Amino acid sequence: MTSTPSECPRCAHETIEQLFTSPVPGVWDVLQCGRCLYTWRTTEPARRSRRDAYPDNFKLTEADIDNAIEVPSVPPLASRG
Amino acid sequence: MAYDDLRSFLNALDEEGQLLHITDEVLPEPDLAAAANATGRIGENAPALYFDNVKGFTDARIAMNVHGSWANHALALGLPRHTPVKEQVEEFARRWDAFPVAPERREDAPWRENCQEGADVDLFSVLPLFRLNDGDGGFYLDKAAVVSRDPQDPENFGKQNVGTYRIQVIGANRLAFQPVPMHDVAQHLRKAEEVGEDLPIAITLGNDPVMAIVAGMPMAYDQSEYEMAGALRGAPAPIATAPLTGFDVPWGSEVVIEGVIESRKRQIEGPFGEFTGHYSGGRRMPVIRVDRVSYRTNPVFESLYLGMPWTECDYLVGPNTCVPLLKQLRAEFPEVQAVNAMYTHGLMVIISTAKRYGGFAKAVGMRAMTTPHGLGYVSQVILVDEDVDPFNLPQVMWAMSAKVNPKEDVVIIPNLSVLELAPASEPAGITSKMIIDATTPVAPDVRGNFSTPAKDLPETAEWAARLQRLIAARR
Description:
The complex is a heterodimer.
Chain A: E1 16-21, E2 29-33, E3 39-41, H1 46-49, H2 62-66
Antiparallel strand pairs in A: 1-2, 2-3
Chain B: H1 6-15, E1 19-22, H2 31-38, E2 48-51, E3 62-64, H3 70-76, H4 85-96, E4 104-105, E5 114-117, H5 123-126, E6 139-141, E7 145-148, E8 161-163, E9 167-171, E10 174-177, H6 184-194, E11 199-205, H7 209-215, H8 225-233, E12 238-241, E13 248-250, E14 255-261, E15 267-269, E16 272-273, E17 279-280, E18 283-285, E19 287-295, E20 301-303, H9 312-317, H10 319-332, E21 336-343, E22 348-353, H11 360-369, H12 372-376, E23 380-384, H13 393-403, H14 406-409, E24 410-417, E25 430-438, H15 460-474
Parallel strand pairs in B: 1-2, 3-20, 4-12, 22-23, 23-25
Antiparallel strand pairs in B: 2-3, 5-19, 6-9, 7-8, 7-11, 9-10, 10-19, 11-14, 12-13, 14-19, 15-18, 16-17, 21-22, 24-25
Helix pairs in contact in B: 4-10, 7-8
């Protein structure tokens, strides 16, 4: 595929990695955002693959990612006796 | 009839007219998920869907909605496809009593035919992965049977857990994984992380239809899902030894993924459209490094659509939620006739019960809230008389409309526990709970004018069975 998008549809981060490409050459790529890990196929509808069409409800900011809670939380290390 | 793998069950569904092979070319998105979503919008007894012509793929085989109708659920249990829901639940409960049935170990697992190891692992090359819902963070494995062991007691077969958890593919050999804190695998992970060790894990995809049912069943920590599968199948569950972890995995899986949950690591995950009909996510979850993938030649990728109910998920976890509640209630209250806990994994429950004396039905409702599953679910309980079928919603609505005097028969209890995913909880994990007593008052509760009910004729049950036989024979 040509024309890899320049930003993540979800968080607008500009580092995009290609995870996979279609076994039939040139049909689609699977891309992933290097920050929020959003993963999409280039043939998906604009509402999933373009920043300007991505729903506001699902957009993430750097602060959202940094402040995301841990589930489950990492437990304290047990003291070894 | 016990099926040993997904393929033999797909063949059986096909023979019963319950598998639709879609031969037209479809897009991976949004077609695969939209078609599976649509099975819940076309009336009863929707078929499983099988796709093998997916744009851009050369070798994709995808099965969806395998458990996604009452006909398919009946066939999964080896019952006739027209078996009514209430009878399916009763048969499920009857077979439960055979637990435990020891599994049968076999060494010739077909998933040994192919493998990728170490740096060669590429999940995308084995699985035709795709997105389900618009807001999902990526592509998910959402119908896997995941096997883990108690790191402090690794040889204990009963404590070896088989469960279904949501798993996001975040790289060719990396997965994000959601162990909800009350789930068994979360206990295994906690024990491993407390000593700074990775937790080995085996993720099995494309299993026989009873394996998928037991993997989603609320069972006790030391009860073996394989021994429950044997009880429900009426035959020992076939298992094999996974080559890397040494764990017991289903013999018939299409794909067996092995690796470790990396100790004390969390990474952003989700969101994912959940069984509540709402998304959850944007949280930091544990991550899995995949070290080996074993797979059958021409593997079938099984996935499940979930979103606004009803979807396949509701059929899959409907009866397996009703039965534990029924067993626990009947242990103390043999008057309980049937439990319908099929709405959002039992967030709402309908119970039919005979009354020992006035006020009894409300006590049954309170007990349902205090069962182990009830602590995290059961936020609304409707009680109906013993002659009302809780699976027959028009009958339930009749009981509510005719029997309930709201001032006395609706009881609301504040600040009780519920799972955090419950969208109405406030704060997350806390909710009020409600009992609606739609039973007929009995002495000394003498309220209302219920002395002359119009009951079904004594001969009606016999005629109902006769009509069903005649209708079935006509097909």
